[in-house]
Amino acid sequence: MAYFTHEGQRLAYTVHGTGNRVCVLLPGLLTNQRMQAPLAAALADCGIKAITMDPLGHGESDRPDEMWRYSMRAYAQEVIALLDHLEVAKAVVGGASLGANTKLEVAVAAPQRLKGMIIEMPVLEAALLGCSIAFTPLMCAQTFGAPAMRAAGKVASLIPRKGMPLLGEIALDWIQQDPTPGSAVLRGLFFDRVAPPRKERSEIKTPALIIGHQRDPVHPFSDAGLLAGELVNSQLLEASSVLELRSRPQRLTGEIAEFVNGCWKPRRAQRSQPPVSPL
Q1: Neighbour count for residue 140 (Cβ, 10 Å)
Q2: pTM for the full model?
Q3: Which of the residues 60, 67, 203, 279 could staple to 188 if both were Cys, CB 3.0 to 4.6 A apart?
Q4: Statement: 2-126+190-262 belongs to CATH 3.40.50.1820
């Protein structure tokens, strides 16, 4: 794992593989780059340099307590700063949930730095109610129940990880983190906009692979479909569940690798494609 400094804060990243085709991957909200490590390894096996990164307040990056440091637009600037640090002119950028929305902000702020976007589980208008139901209690627990959550973290740190599935490790990482910065992240995200407004999204020309799935109120498939209809150069891929890319990744990683490699080839703009049904 390596680090660079952006606006006085240390940010962690890991480089997987080598080559000129670069793909940056961000994790979901309050998780860490371990979430994207298997996908990064699979892309590296395909000759793609994949870079996983912990945004501020996540994983091994600094975790300040001030809520004003956290927003989707601030996370987009961190991605741009990572590209600057690595002297990468253009890259495909991807991420899940928080990472997906961050990529939309990168496309608005610096479209010239993008070769493509992998947008897994975007959070847009249809997710408003589900996010409120899911994250408001969590924010309250991290703010007012911090001692209990720290005690749970200490217990989680005693659980052996050898042989544990990736999803179990991600869960333990989440439980072990200090709740105070996590509360600041949630409050900061709620204070600022969650995604670019529809007018700005419709002006994005960057090629995009949008991945959604059914039966998740926080990441409704209707948001993925809405975004696919807005972006003029997108394709929509339906996953069987939120777990497919982390538990049975072969089909999706193949589609993602093909998309990333295709971003370095001349391509014509196209409207969104019908969803690909899971096998």
Answers
A1: 12
A2: 0.87
A3: 67
A4: yes
